[in-house]
Amino acid sequence: MSTSARFRDRRVHLERRATASKAVRTSLVSLAGLIGGPVTNQSGEEVGRVVDVVARLYGVDSYPPVTGLILRIGRRRTFLPADALGKVNAGHVRLRTARVDLRDFARRPGEVLLAKDVLDHQLVDVDGVQVTRAADLYLAPLVDQVVLVGVDVSLPTLLRRLGPRRWQTRPTPERVLDWQAVAPFAEQATEGPPEVRLRASRAALHRLRPADLADILEDLGRTERQQLLGWLEPEQAADALEEMEPAELENLLREAQPEHAARLIDEMEPDEATDALRDLTREEREALLARMPKGGAAELRRLLAHREDTAGGAMTTLLITTRRDETVAEVRGRLAEQAEHRTEIDAVAVVDGEDRLLCDIALFDLAVAEDTTPIADLVAWRAQFGPPDTVQADTSLAEAADQLVAARASSLLVVDDTDRPIGRILADDLLDAMLPERGRMHFRRFLQ
């Protein structure tokens, strides 16, 4: 899809947003064109020149209001509050009165300097699910104040800013992204409390799927990437990490503080966490394991003990087991408790009193059975198709793949020498392990 087509589609999607209003779009003021422009009083006398525009970026407002200007008057820089502004035009600001109250600037919680902190900085376009940079910002009068309504991310705008002054002041509204579709990264831009800084961006980013967050994390710079991870809940961050390319995930874990990296690894699915740890050096791996809860660290060490090219090296230890005397309703209840791991569970293993495998029941078979059906009845029905397909922990991945294809299944149980289930190897994990040159296949990403 062409760039112009993407912008047209986005405008349709944002039809209820401020930048969709014709009145707003015709009154847009380019921030890049405003910087360096004159500020005049009612008599038309120049008071100073615009150095920057201050806005309350991390507040409750959908569109950040302008709270004032930073002016250069001779060699002095001073602050002009928003209530002194009369009209903000392209490249020029006119004041309400001939007398103005100029103050020393002190940044308040949630405020940013738009030119210094946002222009040319990285942003996340939540609607377009991409990382981009602000080539220009657009201000517009809305109700009784001037607000930040949009951002321009196009290359022609960058070229416009390099041209003559008369070009710099001209906005290009056909390339504007509505501010509500943007989550900015400007950790250094405010001295306010974290809850003020995070409110707007976190709400937008929570709408993104793990695969989309993974793409964003891969595109962000080091500082912005760590900031985004700090914004996300550990479970959401771990889901995104599981969708990242191995090399990018390796870099991310090395960049993070060890305590934070260990917390993220602990939240990941065991097989994905094992893959991530294998890519680190022994010293780095042990440093993270030492900071994890003892139970989780012990489980990962058991998985790491298996060779990477075997079923044990690619399996997940997350298993749902049941016994013959339970009912379908009871098993469904246990599955509901594991909803956060839905992508790692496609079947339930039935074991006897000594935990030896009797049967592997697909979730579809559980879904169509009556609640009161005993698991024993499903075991008897499945027996007509032969014993369940299993592999040993030391089975090669190639052999496991052949068996998976022959069974026409989406996973295989991994059992020990006494036929007790110890893990499950999923189809997408086989592909990830056997086709590294093609990158991670991520069946789950496609299904989402």
From TrEMBL:
Span of the signal peptide: none
Keyword Endoplasmic reticulum attributed: no
Keywords assigned by UniProt, alphabetized: CBS domain
Ranges for domain CBS: 383-441
InterPro entries (alphabetical): CBS_dom, CBS_dom_sf, Mg_transptr_MgtE_intracell_dom, MgtE_N_sf, MgtE_transporter, PRC_barrel-like_sf
Molecular-function annotations in GO: magnesium ion transmembrane transporter activity
One GO CC term on file: membrane
Keyword Metal-binding: no
Full protein name: Magnesium transporter MgtE
